[in-house]
Amino acid sequence: MGHIEPDELAVLALEGHEPDAAARDHLDECASCLAEYEAFARTAALGRGGASDQGEELPSPSVWAGIHAELGLDPALRADPLTEAPSPPAPKRSSPARWWTFALAAAVVGVLAGVGIGFGIAQTAPPPSQTVLARAALEPFPGWEASGEALVEEDADGARSIVVDVDSPVPSGAVREVWLIRSDASGLVSLGLLDGASGRFTVPSGIDLGEYPIVDVSAEPLDGEPAHSGDSIVRGELHEDVES
Q1: CA 32, 37, 39 angle in degrees (round to 5)?
Q2: How many domains does the chain have?
Q3: Does 192 map to a domain?
Q4: Rounded CA gap, 182 and 121, in Å?
Q5: CA distances from 96 to 13, 99, 201, 225 (A)
Q6: Are 108 and 147 in a shared domain?
Q7: Taking the complete model, does pTM exceed 0.85, yes or no?
Q8: What is the 3-state secondary structure (H, E, C) of the chain?
């Protein structure tokens, strides 16, 4: 069979359906379709995990910020629906689980419309008029043959993004996730999934890169667990750019 369409992969991941025999055989042979399906599946798994009412750890507010920015949602929906109820007017306040389901569905609809996933998948179109503020050389951890670089860019409106370029294989049965980490490793923030060799990630407005100067790319199994796996591929510290 030919390549599986992205919308079919997205629907399979969102609904939690296992691919049929033909699709499974194709995924076993096609690395590009498998990587795309696994990225969708991790996005869906994180969304379902974040919607739990059983006290499980919820995705950070930066996840909703990515969805909001990428899909161009109404400013009234800027607040993280997992921590704050949506702004009125509304006949009833929806539960966080219902709003998280909406967010995940909106992200998949974005894929079908050709605008890409805002949650978990890096932006790919570079915005204009970017100034490089800082950069980091990304060095491999033991057991990984990889290299890369991260650039912090700022646009004319003061919005920051991190461009990550990594030369590494996509781990079998896993995806690559980009993180910002405190220098003392006491905290970390997920920026999203790296789909391909390069990706652009929005830096949440409340994040101080002086406090979170470490850029990390990890291998994350598709287990629905939002925490860092502890399996880092590359890591580097941001330093003020002197090449601009």
Answers
A1: 95
A2: 2
A3: yes
A4: 22
A5: 20, 5, 25, 18
A6: no
A7: no
A8: CCCCCHHHHHHHHHHCCCCCHHHHHHHHHCHHHHHHHHHHHHHHHHHHHHCCCCCCCCCCHHHHHHHHHHHCCCHHHCCCCCCCCCCCCCCCCCCHHHHHHHHHHHHHHHHHCCCCCCCCECECCCCCCCEEEEEEEEEECCCCCCEEEEEEEECCCCCEEEEEEEECCCCCCEEEEEEEECCCCCCEEEEEEECCCEEEEECCCCCCCCCCCEEEEEEEECCCCCCCCCCEEEEEECEECCCC
Claim to verify: residue 52 and residue 141 sit in the same structural domain: no
Instruction: Assess whether 84 and 135 both reside in one domain.
Output: no
| CB-CB contact of 95 with 89 (8 Å) | no
Residue 174 lies in a domain: yes
Q: What is the pLDDT of residues 201-239, one digit of tens each?
A: 999 988 999 999 999 999 999 888 889 999 999 999 999
Q: What residues make up the domain containing 48?
A: 6-112
Distance from C-alpha of 163 to C-alpha of 202, rounded to nearest angstrom: 9
pLDDT digits (tens, 9 = 90+) for 160-214: 999 999 998 887 888 999 999 999 988 999 999 998 899 999 999 889 999 999 9
Residue 123 lies in a domain: no
